[in-house]
Amino acid sequence: SSNTLIVEPNAQGNKGVTLITLNRPKALNALNSEVLEELIAAFAAFEADPAQLCAVVTGSGEKAFAAGADIKEMIEKQSAEFYLEDFFSNWTGEIVKKVRKPWIAAVNGFALGGGCELAMMADFIIASEHARFGQPEIKLGVAPGMGGSQRLTRAIGKSKSMEMCLTGRMMDANEAERANLVVRVLPQDELLGDALKTAATIAAMPPMAAIANKEMVNAAFETTLDQGLIMERRIFQILAASEDKQEGMAAFVEKRGGQWKGR
Ligand code: HXC
Q1: Structurally, what CATH architecture does the domain formed by 5-203 represent?
Q2: For the chain, what is the mean pLDDT?
Q3: Is the CB of 122 under 6 A from ligand 1?
Q4: Catalytic center residues
Q5: Taking the CB of the first residue and of the last residue of the chain, which one, N or C, has fewer CB atoms within 10 A?
Q6: Where exactly are the structural domains of the chain?
Q7: pLDDT tens figures, 130-147
Q8: Which ipTM value was assigned to this complex?
């Protein structure tokens, strides 16, 4: 664990599940450069550890997942600095492209601006009744900068995304569920348990198959249908050569659980 994050491998006894908690509750877990750097390091460690197979990211405290990029940090920056540092580029690229293992966002409160964008980088979102989603950057004279205009639109469609970006309004958990932004909504005190249990279910799957399933679903956002279908078939054919495919099918026929080798 680090200054602004709590990182717990095998969290609460869930084998293979890493829990990463954003931990700046007084600033509503606003994402300053320290949090973002520590998050990249935490994801790299998770990705590198063969014993950790699914991660959950959540926010500490009752109020927020993350209330956005840190406005007090951004107010000091001029346009040239944002541009020359290519602000947020390594960050959005690192997490989405380099983390091949599955991870879940457990949204326990405000997920605004960069917080909403971080949640949408996850493979899926589980929300509590307290969750609020929004891209309020327009009110600050800016616009989403960590993927919000693209990922929100892909997730919930043009009308709702456009309205949210243009008005900066928040969407509550139930609306987010109706809009397919989140998988499901739970009472606040059941959120983390459900997210960890879901992650444990994924962590108990054959690990190569988990990575392959994630890769395939993500390809649907990047390719034509024909290319995606070819990619799906090729990955399926590669998986068919794995030891875990042999074990998985044998275990089914023999009516027992599988013992995964991860290859
Ligand atoms: C820095 C923040 C913050 C943020 C909240 N805080 N959000 N600090 N950056 N994004 C701090 C407040 O300053 C305050 O600290 C403390 O957290 C508690 O917040 P309050 O506002 O007092 O709480 P409340 O009245 O309950 O209101 C909650 C809220 C509001 C509705 C979530 O805090 C809010 O609107 N926050 C900003 C949301 C936002 O605009 N996010 C988008 C950021 S832009 P102090 O010390 O003052 O008491 C962004 C851009 C990404 O993410 C890409 C750009 C390139």
Answers
A1: Alpha-Beta Complex (3.90)
A2: 96
A3: no
A4: 69, 114, 117, 137
A5: C
A6: 5-203, 207-253
A7: 999 999 999 999 999 999
A8: 0.97
